[in-house]
Design a protein that fits this description.
Number of strands of chain B: 12
Largest interface: A-B, 28 and 26 residues
Oligomer: heterodimer
Strand content of chain A: over 45%
Shape of chain A: globular
Largest sheet of chain B: 6 strands, mixed
Order of helices and strands of chain B: EEEEEEEEEEEE
Helix content of chain B: under 10%
Structural class of chain A: mainly beta
Distance between the termini of chain B: 41 Å
Low-confidence stretches of chain B: none
Mean pLDDT of chain B: 94
Order of helices and strands of chain A: EEEEEEEEEEE
């Protein structure tokens, strides 16, 4: 069966520091991959998605970037964190465009 | 662009009773998918139910069912025989079926469901 991992689970970082969040999927090949951010008490905002290795599409201009160095690995990065980057970050995957998205356990990021 | 609206920020239900959560959406597309996700305090997003727009029959999963009204762009979730474990935040989500949209989803702001014993 397929599983999705995210780490770290929780992260506290100072303003201006770099960021790297990792997401990996097991048990499938060539998945579509997605990064979402959730503000407290709100819905999910799509940040990036990828349909293949090295193929990244950005939905919202921001202080973040994404990369997909391997088929089942999706990384969310920042060179310098802002206070507004705090939130809950969720990675998701789907087999194909028409299939259901499944979510990882998420990363809680607090920027101080 | 598609939008999803959940007009009920909070709902409560007595254990064993039935509750309906509302969702409306706006789209110009004819082929799409609609989902309800549950997010408990752990914040793990759990798929509750899925509806394909081309299907007229409403989806059902055990105690969960939907009322899909395509013309009205309405997609409500009914939870029957509510249990304490149903307490969570529920999100309605829209997903385009167009390949060019790569499966991107739009989420509502959620409804927090409280179940009273």
């Amino acid at each position: 069966s397929q599983t999705i991992h995210q780490w770290p689970a929780t992260l506290v970082q100072p303003v201006g520091s770099p960021l790297s969040l990792e997401c990996t999927v097991e048990g499938t090949s060539n998945p579509n991959l997605y990064w979402y951010r959730q503000a407290a008490g709100r819905g999910l905002q799509l940040l990036f998605y990828s349909v293949g290795i090295g193929q990244i599409s950005s939905e919202v201009p921001q202080n973040l970037s994404a990369s997909r160095p391997q088929d089942r690995q999706f990384i969310l990065s920042s060179k310098k964190l802002l206070l507004s980057d705090s939130g809950f970050y969720l990675c998701a995957w789907s087999v194909r465009t028409r299939e259901t998205q499944y979510f990882g356990p998420g990363t809680r990021l607090l920027v101080l | 662009a598609q939008t999803v609206t959940q007009s009920q920020p909070e709902m409560s239900v007595q254990e064993a009773e039935t509750v309906t959560l509302s969702c409306t959406y706006d789209t110009s597309e004819s082929d799409y998918y609609l989902f309800w996700y549950k997010q408990p305090p752990s914040r793990q997003m759990i798929l509750v139910i899925r509806q394909e727009a081309y299907k007229q029959q409403n989806a059902t999963e055990n105690r969960f069912s939907v009322n899909f009204q395509k013309a009205a762009k309405s997609f409500s979730l009914k939870i029957s025989d509510s249990q304490l474990g149903d307490a969570a935040m529920y999100f309605c989500a829209y997903r385009s079926a167009l390949l060019a949209n790569a499966g991107k989803s739009t989420f509502g702001d959620g409804t927090t469901l409280t179940v009273k014993p």
